[in-house]
Design brief:
five-stranded antiparallel sheet
Length: about 375
């Protein structure tokens, strides 16, 4: 998945515009001039004053003072706070000129309140951008790029044709950011997967998940004991920001041998094609960041033809007023429906079935040998 947001102008339209003689240099010149805060401020002030003059002297219908709302919005999206204040002074002067020449009744209380509300909204947007140190819509573009990078990092590495894998991430409230994330890597026949759950849900946990996804992604494959290394990092951090659980799977694609280590995470379950049953792995450990030295009790086994491993977060089995064991039993019961339709098609259906009725971050990783 590409980490860049989609272009605002479709490629075919852009190609057609490029062929127009002299259009490209003019567009570049306008963008270069208006990209400077001072030049854009001067242009918007002039536009506001011209609108006020034309509304008062020419036609209040053709040049309505309501156009000042658009000028204020553009300033709120593009200008720094100090420049925006100067623009608002110009907008106020234009509105006062119209009221002085046509009468306060022609301006109207509704329009005045609307412009005042728009000005307050513009100031809030400019203050937020000022704290971030960005201009215009670059802050939104940065968030889009972070979201795309997180999604790209959350994909499984390419697997051989005799292996299958599926990842389903569903964030609370339909947000693009949440507390559940996946990091994975492949080195030859060795694949490592880590599914992490940060306390909280939705956007509230998304900022910390973004930070930890980069850190854990760097540790994965670089250290032998992945979860103890993550625990040491979290234990060095200051402040109490809630707990973090994780499960780590190291899989050999040539033999099917796997090792599971867990830190306070819901258990991994394995589908045994020979018996047709789901078996709960015994790997367990303390949540990350609580104790200085993390001790994990791993579990190991072998995936044969038709077998599968299912990793998930507590959002699939934890519901208010219900026991976690009951949620796990329900998950294993719903997982039986994966067999008729196949693992790949059934993964999304399993998440939708288990997450219906409550709003929480959910993540599921399914790896199988066809």
């Amino acid at each position: 998945m590409s980490s860049r947001p989609a272009p605002l102008i479709p490629p075919r339209v852009r190609a057609a515009l490029v062929r127009v003689p002299g259009l490209v240099p003019v567009v570049r010149l306008v963008r270069r001039v208006l990209s400077r805060d001072r030049n854009l401020l001067a242009a918007l002030v002039v536009v506001a004053l011209v609108i006020g003059f034309l509304a008062a002297e020419v036609s209040n219908e053709w040049f309505s003072p309501s156009l000042l709302i658009l000028v204020t919005l553009v300033g709120g999206l593009q200008l720094r706070l100090a420049s925006l204040v100067k623009l608002l002074v110009g907008v106020g002067a234009a509105l006062a000129y119209v009221a002085a020449n046509l009468g306060a009744g022609r301006v109207g209380l509704g329009l005045t309140v609307t412009i005042a509300f728009t000005a307050v909204l513009a100031v809030l947007m400019a203050r937020t951008r000022g704290k971030l140190g960005v201009q215009g819509l670059r802050g939104d573009a940065m968030l889009l790029e972070l979201r795309d990078r997180l999604r790209s990092q959350g994909e499984l590495p390419p697997l051989p044709k005799d292996w299958g894998g599926k990842v389903v991430l569903k964030q609370a409230g339909g947000s693009s950011f949440g507390g559940d994330f996946l990091v994975s890597m492949r080195d030859g026949d060795s694949v490592e997967i880590a599914l992490v759950d940060v306390s909280g849900k939705g956007v509230d946990a998304g900022t910390r998940a973004l930070l930890l996804s980069g850190t854990f992604g760097g540790l994965l494959g670089s250290v032998e004991d992945f979860l103890p290394a993550c625990n040491a990092y979290l234990h060095r951090q200051r402040g109490d920001e809630g707990f973090v659980t994780a499960v780590h799977v190291r899989l050999d694609l040539a033999t099917g041998d796997y090792t599971i280590t867990s830190a306070g995470h819901p258990p991994v379950v394995k589908f045994d094609a020979g018996t047709g049953n789901w078996q709960v792995a015994s790997a367990k450990g303390v949540v990350l960041g609580v104790v200085p030295d993390l001790h994990c009790e791993p579990d190991s086994g072998t995936l044969r033809k038709g077998d599968a491993l299912l990793l998930f977060t507590d959002g699939l089995i934890e519901q208010p007023g219900r026991d976690i064991d009951a949620g796990l039993d329900r998950l294993l019961g719903e997982a039986e429906r994966l067999l008729p339709s196949g693992f790949r098609d059934g993964a999304r259906a399993l998440v939708n079935a288990m997450s219906s009725g409550h709003n929480d971050d959910c993540a599921l990783v399914l790896i199988w040998r066809p």
